[in-house]
Amino acid sequence: DIEFKNLGLLIIDEEQRFGVAAKEKIKQLRVNVDVLALSATPIPRTLQMSLLEIRDMSLINTPPRDRLPIHTETIEFDPRVIRQAMLHELQRGGQIYFVHNRIQSIDMIARRIKEIVPEADIAVAHGQMNVKELEHVMHDFMQKKYHILISTMIIESGLDIPNVNTIFINRADKFGLAQLYQLRGRVGRSNRKAYCYLIIPPLKKLTREAIQRLETVEEFTELGSGFHIAMRDLEIRGAGSILGGEQSGFIESLGIDLYMKILDEAIKEFQHDQEEGQEEKDFLPEECRVEADVDAYLPQKYVSIPSERVEIYRQVAHARDHELIEDVREELKDRYGRLPAEAENMLNIAIVSLLGRQHGFGRIVIKKQTAMCVFHDALVESSQEQFKALLGKMVLSALYPVELFQDKKTGIKITFPDDEDALFGMKAFLVNALSAENPETIAALDDDTEQEQKKNNGDRTL
Fold it and tell me: Were 194 and a residue from 52, 165, 215, 294 both cysteine, which residue would form a disulfide, CB within 3.0 to 4.6 Å?
């Protein structure tokens, strides 16, 4: 019923609580409206659209001051453990949430908790209560007239009571990852240590998906870990449909990385968004394999956390431009200090692979002081004038001796000086070859290459 005069910005808070139809209906209020969606745990469909760069995404990783991680533990319904945890909170003057999401049996649970902790004052709250009665219960709880609030999911969002620092979630296996994360976020809103207990039946009665969700919530307890939980939710539930209304979907048999790659390729094929010169690119190989007799990896001593090493490997593997790899290099220097030789080799191999593909090489083998660069068959069999022009530019821009060989395969052999690092020399060769084609776009990389050359040769600039 609301008519906007000049709607320009739509902000959707708690975006995971809205369906696709609801969000699209709101956006139809104005065709060109800018939309900012806020969520601690984005739904799989929204997260997938961000990963595919259909939507822009920004992460806020800095938590409020003095906040502490929430201790998360999975337990069965054990009266002794529950009493001990509740008394611990009550003895330090705190309050407790106990979430039971079934109204039919919530009063029975309240009586059971009262038997376990008779010294505590208990209140019950759920959505079917009279509005004034519910408001009265919540007000009294905030005024510390009750020690324990037994409620349904109505406390999932919007509550900020710093004195509540322990929460029990009954039948946690029935909740989704986003729900568990949101419920856990109701505690730990002060500088006190907070506790979250996930109450479940025996493990043998749980589904595999439920166990995965519980393991995820226990694993990611650090502040601001909602994005990691959302990524795991994407892996467990699937990404849904970009063009349809499903916000999750089954992709377990493929795995998220392969699924995203296939989907990305399908979108490009569907769009047929080919630039000028695409016919020439068809002669290029899908990838350029690089073999070098050097150690190329991220040493554990350099990046000690396994998940961070995996993320860096993923960034390098998914880079489609050498400039992105240079960005990774600068980020590593900034975060971890000077790169060891193994890490330098890994990044240089990735750059050689990308630039080698752009020059039509399907395989590059670097041994000792030589590099054997084999051209892709489709390029050799294409227009001879085009191939000769490409080869001529390489030879003219080469810093090192180049020999053409034509055996079973066609390629070039490059010989590097004895005091030259062959892998770095191969990178410099490709940089110069690319510079001969696009001098204005490679200037920045040339500067980086010159600096690295000086470092490797032990030069000093005064």
Answer: 165
CATH of the domain at 331: 3.90.1150.50
The pLDDT value recorded for residue 22 is 74
Same domain for 195 and 90 = yes
Please give the backbone phi and psi of residue 338, each rounded to the nearest 5 degrees, phi first.
-60, 135
Residue ranges in the chain modelled with pLDDT below 70: 1, 20, 23-24, 26-31, 43-54, 223-224, 226-283, 383, 435-462
180 and 255 fall within a common domain:
no
> Contact, 343 vs 299, CB < 8 A?
yes
Q: Which among 397, 389, 392, 455 has a CA at the least distance from the CA of 429?
A: 397
The tens digit of pLDDT for each residue in 85-122 reads 999 999 999 999 999 999 999 999 999 999 999 999 99
CB atoms within 10 A of CB 117: 19
User: One-letter amino acid identity for 330?
Assistant: E
Residues written for the chain: 462
**Residue 209, both tokens:** 């998906």
* Residue 416: HSE in the Cβ half-sphere, 13 Å Cα cutoff: 19
Q: Map tokens 């467990």 to a residue.
A: 236
Q: What is the pTM of this model?
A: 0.52
- The domain in which residue 15 lies consists of 1-61+229-270
* pLDDT tens, residue by residue, 134-186: 999 999 999 999 999 999 999 987 788 999 999 999 999 999 877 888 898 89
The answer to whether the beta carbons of residues 16 and 22 sit under 8 Å apart is no
Does residue 135 sit in the same domain as residue 183? yes
Structure confidence at residue 79 (pLDDT)? 95
Buried b (16+ CB within 10 A) or exposed e, 386-407: ebeebbebbeebbbbebeeeee
What is the edge-to-edge ordering of all strands in the sheet holding 361-367?
A: 289-292, 361-367, 370-375, 410-415, 402-406
